[in-house]
Amino acid sequence: MSRLGIIFCSIYALVIVVCLALAFWAGFDFKGRFVFLQLPLTPQIAITDTIGLSSQLQNLSWVGAYIILGLPAFVVLYFVGKAMGLVFTLSGIGR
Predict the structure, then answer these.
(1) pLDDT by residue (tens digit) across 67-77?
(2) What is the CA radius of gyration of the chain?
(3) Whose CA is closest to 40, among 67, 59, 58?
(4) Are 86 and 11 within 8 A, CB to CB?
(5) How buried is residue 74: exposed, middle or buried, by Cβ count under 10 Å (0-12/13-18/19+)?
(6) pLDDT average, residue stretch 61-72
(7) For residue 49, what are the domain limits?
């Protein structure tokens, strides 16, 4: 198990929770709610737009968007942390 991967995933989960809380506290400010709901998914939305898949995601609910785009982000973050931990271990950093 990668500690660094879990730390990265925990930070991303915290960002999601804070943004969701701010979105629901926005009240009737629909633009503010939209921005805070979209903020944690911005990198994934940019990637889907770059590869031409944004039209496929237009009719998704926010729950669907977080499942389709958010869950793979956790996997990527975990393995990036695992790879970084391996590099740090092999290079002797952190001893």
Answers:
(1) 999 999 999 99
(2) 16
(3) 67
(4) no
(5) middle
(6) 93
(7) 3-91
